[in-house]
Amino acid sequence: MRAAVRFLVFVSIGMACGAAQADCSSLQVAEWLVGEWQGTRGANRLVERWEKLSAQTFEGKGTTTRDAKVVESEELRLVLMEQRVFYVAKVAQNALPVAFALTQCDGQRLVFENPAHDFPKKLEYQLTGPTTFSVRVSAGERGYTLTFNRL
To answer: pTM of the full predicted structure?
Structure first.
């Protein structure tokens, strides 16, 4: 009898934990990212704008301005392909877009990785409050963190 009760408790806990986990094979886990966000890095103003185009594609645009002039821009996408989510970035430093696979997620955190890329190898988006998120851009110990506020 005790073994049966312990088994039922174990199964119930496992089911509850599984229910709390996010589905990393859907863009629904990234819905909080949609909108316009602003941050700073030194004298630079950073803006990320994300729009939901469909259940399979979010489109983003990142711009860095200094003294009201654009000094850098990037085209971003979150795409669902073959039941996996990818973060795809087209930046001036690379001739071709670079894809990062979503490797971890929950309701407030998205981790994208590409171990074959030089820098960065990992992007960690973390919702830190109702109107703020941070992104850790890294390759091993090397990296930096940016903080954004919803506009």
So the answer is: 0.85
